[in-house]
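Try it yourself: sequence plus 1,3-dihydroxyacetonephosphate, in.
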Amino acid sequence: MIAKQPLQLLQKALRGKYAIGAFNVNNLELLQGIVRGAEAQRAPVILQTSEGAIEYAGMAELVAMMSTAAQRATVPCVIHLDHGKDLDVVRAAIKQGYTSVMYDGSSLSYDENVRNTAKVVRWARAAGVMVEAELGAIAGTEDLVSVEAREATYTIPEQALDFVERTGCDSLAIAIGTAHGAHKAAVTNIVLDIPRLKRIHALVQKTPLVLHGASSVPDELVGETRMYCSMLGDCQRLDGAQGIPDTQVRQAIANGVCKVNTDTDLRIAFTAAVRETIVEQKDVFDPRKLLAPARDAIQRIVTQRIAVFGSKGKG
Ligand code: G3H
Ligand code: 13P
Ligand code: ZN
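Structure, out:
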């Protein structure tokens, strides 16, 4: 079913100290793998598309596909815009049928982020859509210059309170040491700033907090992908890959995080499965035979993530 009240789902998770998994959708097989994984675990799920996904597949097409899958699903499914940076895209998403949108003004000045987020909240309220905002900057692979440089972009707890009060956003993505992509720690092992998270949660107690860049980048999957990549002659990009350990994700969930985003783990699993089929089954040229194992791999990852998030049986 489509979750028409996504905020209530998050608030329930916040009270119950578990997190709802938010997984990135770019095509049909990803969507099916995610929904099947969530249904098998009886877990509510957030289906999210980035601006990049929209550019690739089309907003109307993605919404039609996700809404159909959600209506048929036996668990609540939120249809969410991930990292909406362009106000026109956010406004279009609200009109198109997303039940939740993220406005990401984290690269703007604080005042501009407040102004734009408040504007999005006004549009969204009128349509009954929930709004996630971002304060502090969640690093990307290319931003991992040093630990000090990263810490300078972490969410400031007192500013988080002011931000939530001034914008009226429903949930807040915070920067406490995670990063997008497969290389989350360029210079050292990852230690999330849990004391900072506790201070933020103590100040904005009722606001669901969101952890981006939380993929675990499992060694065995990276190994599999690299094995088949090296056969195909290109495996540089997964050198030194490192994710967020499950123990740290669980600590974050124990302290106010109730939505956790995963994209990179899905990408690695999907790619490993496709590469394996290409290499091991050289006679396959039916796209369905190429993509069905990848869809199964997505279901397995979603199952593992739901176990970490504690949302099994909550749908
Ligand atoms: O947070 C970013 C997600 O991994 C989406 O990535 O913009 O390449 O679709 P994308
Ligand atoms: P990962 O790159 O760690 O999967 O993070 C995804 C994300 O935050 C999407 O918004
Ligand atoms: Zn993100």
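One thing you can check immediately is this: The pocket of 1,3-dihydroxyacetonephosphate (ligand 2) is lined by residues 24, 82-83, 180-181, 212-215, 261-264 (CB under 6 Å).
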